[in-house]
Design the sequence.
C-alpha cells in the first residue's frame, strides 16, 4: 500500500498525497465545505516537464469515485466467491420509492424466501456486517445479498415492490 502524506491546510481543509509506482503524484484536497479537489502530477518533483491536472468534485462525486475505486477491490475479491456454482452475491441500492426504504430489514424467510442472506448494509463510508432483522434500511443504503441467483432475484423483487412476484396483467378475451 502506498504511503499517504497528510497536510492540514488552515482555513481550507486537508491535503492527502501519495506517489505512484511510476513516479506520479496524486493528491486529494478535502475542503471543509465538503467538496474535494483531485490533483495529479506526472512526476514527483513537479519539474518543468510535469503535467498537472486538477478536477473539482462535489461531495457526492467524491463519494462516488471512492466507491468505484474501493468497489473494484471488493468486486475482485468477491469474484472468486462467485465462481462457486449456485452462489450469487449482488448489491441492491435502495431508492426512495423502494418498498424496503424506511423499513426494518426483517426476515426474508418470513416472506417465503429461504436461503438468502443479507451479508451487509453499506451506509455512507461504513458497512454494517450481518445486520439483524431489526436493522432499519434507508434510501441510499446498499444491501449486499448472497444466495442462489433465483433467490437473490426474489429478494430484490421483494425489496423493490413488497411482493415476491411481479403482478401480471390479466388477459382480456374477445
Sequence:
Amino acid at each position: 500500500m502506498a504511503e499517504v502524506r497528510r497536510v492540514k491546510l488552515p482555513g481550507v481543509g486537508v491535503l492527502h498525497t501519495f506517489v505512484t509506482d511510476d513516479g506520479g503524484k496524486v493528491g486529494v484536497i478535502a475542503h471543509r465545505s465538503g467538496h474535494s479537489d483531485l490533483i495529479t502530477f506526472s512526476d514527483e518533483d513537479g519539474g518543468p516537464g510535469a503535467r498537472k491536472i486538477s478536477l473539482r468534485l462535489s461531495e457526492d462525486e467524491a463519494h462516488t469515485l471512492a466507491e468505484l475505486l474501493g468497489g473494484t477491490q471488493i468486486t475482485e475479491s468477491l469474484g472468486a466467491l462467485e465462481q462457486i456454482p449456485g452462489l450469487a452475491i449482488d448489491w441492491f441500492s435502495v431508492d426512495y420509492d423502494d418498498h424496503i426504504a424506511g423499513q426494518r430489514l426483517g426476515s426474508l424467510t418470513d416472506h417465503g424466501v429461504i436461503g438468502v442472506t443479507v451479508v451487509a448494509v453499506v451506509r455512507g463510508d461504513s458497512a454494517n456486517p450481518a445486520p439483524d432483522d431489526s436493522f432499519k434500511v434507508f434510501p441510499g443504503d446498499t444491501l449486499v445479498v448472497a444466495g442462489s441467483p433465483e433467490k437473490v432475484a426474489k429478494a430484490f423483487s421483494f425489496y423493490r415492490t413488497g411482493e415476491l412476484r411481479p403482478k401480471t396483467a390479466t388477459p382480456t378475451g374477445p
In short: Strands lie at 5-9, 13-19, 25-31, 36-41, 52-57, 88-93, 117-123, 126-129, 142-147. The longest strand covers residues 13-19. The chain has two domains: 5-57, 85-161.
